[in-house]
Amino acid sequence: RAGRRRPPPTAAGRRSPSDAAMPRSGAPREATPLPRAGIACIFLAQCAQGVQVNMLFPMLVFLVQSWTPAADGSGGEADVSDGIVARRAGMLASCYPLGLMLSSSVSGRILDTWGRKPVLLVGCFSAGALSIALGLSPSYSAAVAIRLLAGCLNSISPAVRCVTAELTDASNQARAMSFISLAWNLGTACGPVLAGALVGLVPSRPFLAPCAAAGALSISAGALVLLFLPETLASKRARSGGSAGQESEGETDGLLAGVGGDSCDASEHKLHARTEDEALDRALRGLTKMQGSSSQLAARAEAAEEGHAHLPAVLEGAASTEHRLKWWQIEGVRGVLASYTLIALVYIMMDELFPMFAASARDSAGLALDTKDISVILSVGGAAVFAFTLLAIPPLMDRYGCVRMLRAGFLLSAASCAMLPMPSLLPASAPRALLLACLCVAQACTRVAGTIAFSSIIQTMANTLGHEYLGRLNATGQSMASAARACGPTLGGVLWSAAEHAAQTGTAPRPQLLAFTAVAL
Q: Is there a single domain that holds both residue 189 and residue 110?
């Protein structure tokens, strides 16, 4: 190890995100086993999030219809136009991401100061309680307030990404990230099933049963996090004395905390050779990202690699010039945030457009499907994503890297979004089973493309900055994506209202194709 030399740095003085998950040494490294308890906790928390978000969309239009006549004072559903329902459904769907956007700047600092676990606990328990409250909501305005509060208190996704990055190392990060994507996709597959199977179970409160089931799942995830998930933020763990059973990544963070001056027991910093390499690897990668291409720092980094004797000096050099560059000014950070925001905008608009397209009448450019049909289509798409994430994402990510996969995900997303409404071109006399089969295939293709894009961007974000700013990076990404998600449902509702108006007045042929093409562009 002492004689090993580092390959020359790139022009930017750092490794690109596409190869960030690969080990530095030339020989392949055996994958470190994943911490099962920690991964299981965040898996269930992320799965519960997917259930809560996706469960709402199949029944969103019908949920708003149940409140709209009383809110309008019109005396009956027949007096309520589809345009009013579409706009109100879009605004209700926008409340949750709007709350996320408003609270993300605060939650990012909490993640980096108080730790990851408190944010997860507040998010899980509040999501469970407010989901049940939504099922009991007496009016549209109360539902808006509930969804807005649920978004403000929920920062589960940034916390899950931080925990995943800190529980893993370079040898198993792609596999762990694929599990987190799998959890989200499993939740999005089960959410519509819950909505379709449980809606109407309580006649007086037809939407209470699916909301209560989603709430119970979130509360169960919070209980597991409370009991079995350790705190992964290095500074909080160092103050509490650490844990003898930490995985190698936890030991790495302990080493860096000890170098930085925290008083920890020396026995907690005994590392194997592989862990020492990981500590140096992360330190130097964070240093080069912070400093850019500096020949002096490159020389110090290369010298530090020889026996690790100068690692404290390298870290001290990084700290002395940290003020030169803010974390959000580092090359690549803004591109990652912009990519995450755009892909979130595309898919939240699709989540709003497709149920409206499927539920609207034939003369309004729709397909006249009911809640159970929509739930089946969305569930098939989720199941396809489940299989693809489990079997294809890790090997593809290892072979092609994050950046190439991200570009492919964007291109495939655009193509699949434009193709999604094509089954509506089938003649009215076509068998209903054929229509549903075509919609299931189109939905599966759209969801697989989105999985490629989201999995790639999540792993890219995990390797863009060091753990010191990981919470702020993920929370800022959540804030920007939430702004897109807050605008997306409203934009989707307005876009579909325009398509319905064009279909009813005959001002444009096939307006449903134009609506989905606009999202693809």
A: yes
* Contacting residues for 82 by C-beta, under 8 A, at least 6 apart: 360, 361, 364, 497, 500
Question: Following DSSP, what letter does each residue of 427-458 receive, concatenated?
Answer: -TTS-HHHHHHHHHHHHHHHHHHHHHHHHHHH
Kindly report the pTM of this predicted structure. Answer: 0.65
pLDDT reported for residue 381:
83
First to last CA, the chain: 51
Torsional class of 99: left (φ above 0), alpha (ψ -120 to 50), beta (otherwise): alpha
> How far from chain centre, in Å, is Cα 290?
26
Give a yes or no: residue 416 inside a domain.
Answer: yes
Q: In total, how many domains does the chain have?
A: 2
In tens, the pLDDT along 103-159 reads 877 888 888 888 899 999 999 999 999 999 998 988 889 999 999 999 888 888 889
Structural domain containing residue 446: 36-233+329-520
Q: Is 464 helix (H, G, I), strand (E, B) or coil?
A: coil
Non-local CB neighbours of 288 within 8 Å, separated by 6+ positions: 9, 13, 14, 15, 297, 298, 301
Tell me: do 282 and 380 sit in the same domain. Answer: no
Q: What is the SS3 assignment for 472?
A: helix
Shared domain for 194 and 261, answered yes or no, is: no
Specify whether 395 is located in the same domain as 501: yes
Q: Is residue 516 part of a domain?
A: yes
Give residue 225's pLDDT: 94
**How far, in Å, are 65, 73, 85, 211, 489 from residue 69 at the CA level?**
7, 6, 10, 22, 22
Length of the chain, please? 521
Cβ count near 53 (within 10 Å): 21
